[in-house]
Amino acid sequence: MSVASLPGPLADVSVGRNLPAMRTPMTEVIEPAVAPGTRFDERFVVRELLSRSHRSSIYRAEDAAAGGRLVAIKFPLLSVESDPAGYARFRREEEIGLQLDHPGLLRFLPVPRKTGRPHFVTELLDGCTLADLLHAAGRLPERDALRIAAVACEAMAHLHALGFVHRDLKPANLVLGHDLTLRVIDFGEAAPPERKARLLAALTPIVGTPEYMAPEQVEHRPNDERTDIYSLGAVLYEMLTGVVPFQNADAWASAYQRTTGDPIAPRELVPGISPVAEEIVLHALQRDPAQRYPTAAAFLAELQAPERVAISGRAGRLRPPRWRLSLHGTPILAGVLIGAGAIAALVGLFIILTKLAPGR
């Protein structure tokens, strides 16, 4: 069967028939590689290193118990394995992954008996990430962009139904296959929704990728399924326009811009975008979660039937971001002002104590 005749969910996406090569990240780390030929779990034989990030390494391997079928094995870096928080995150990704059962989500393989270093096993994907495609194409035809977003949205609806929020949706975590399928990958940041503010939340690391974060992620506020809707809206914005919603040389500065203002209307950047597509993407990118699509199912319904979308005039009510002092967005200035304030407070305290000292 030819690729053109495969009944994948992206069968009607024109850009899916000529995918670029996948650009695999290879972060430099001081760590011994797993030697080719090493066997794990009495069945998986490692063949070669595919990619390496600052948290993990992924290898191509053969499953001897399935006739040599190719799979992917993910290992945490030794530094992650020795860090309780990092190792818990790695284990949580596998625990969540094994609960997934949807063609749009990466498939994890259950392994009853594990041997050797900590690891988990998934299907091996053949294709490229959406980030690779956007790097090669710049932006996508509107019809293709809406269809890709719809397939990803359907997968998110399944994830949300299981009680998890992905929290790091971005083009690099969407893989388009040569078989005209799409997979959402990387569940390392996934977690149940946070309905209430956490104590000392501002002291915990921000989860996600700055260019695609929802405002509530940036501000350490509770996040839920609508957080993924915002991130997918940011991905759709990039597919339609070729750029991320907020442009700034500093990724964190762009992240904080979305907490005080709106992105440029897509049709201002690309006049050929339809008013309906602009309406959909701006609905997903509302700063206030209550103003976004309430569920992935509601978002999906409009992506699948754009002809039924009513134009609300959102594009005419956009407001540019306001300047805001923050440790992430303006770290040098914020540090200077905070330091100056601390010095002023100490000087004031010294003066008060001097006046209150005996004999004065």
Description of the structure:
By secondary structure, the protein is α+β, with helices and mostly antiparallel strands. It folds into 3 domains: 3-123, Phosphorylase Kinase, domain 1 (2-Layer Sandwich); 127-317, Transferase(Phosphotransferase) domain 1 (Transferase(Phosphotransferase), domain 1, Orthogonal Bundle), CATH 1.10.510.10; 330-360. Helix content is 34%, strand content 12%. The protein has 11 helices and 9 strands. It has helices at residues 78-81, 84-97, 130-137, 142-161, 215-218, 225-241, 251-257, 266-269, 275-284, 296-304, 331-356; strands at 39-40, 44-52, 56-63, 69-76, 108-109, 120-123, 127-129, 174-177, 182-184. The strands form 2 sheets. A 6-stranded antiparallel beta sheet has the order 1-2-3-4-6-5. A hairpin with a 3-residue loop joins β1 and β2. α4 packs antiparallel against α6, α4 packs antiparallel against α10 (296-304) and α6 (225-241) runs antiparallel to α9. The longest helix has 26 residues, at 331-356. It is globular. Mean pLDDT is 89; it is low at 1-5.
Compact overview of the structure:
With 360 residues, the chain is of the alpha+beta class.
Topology summary:
Elements: E1 39-40, E2 44-52, E3 56-63, E4 69-76, H1 78-81, H2 84-97, E5 108-109, E6 120-123, E7 127-129, H3 130-137, H4 142-161, E8 174-177, E9 182-184, H5 215-218, H6 225-241, H7 251-257, H8 266-269, H9 275-284, H10 296-304, H11 331-356
Antiparallel strand pairs: 1-2, 2-3, 3-4, 4-6, 5-6, 7-8, 8-9
Helix pairs in contact: 4-6, 4-10, 6-9
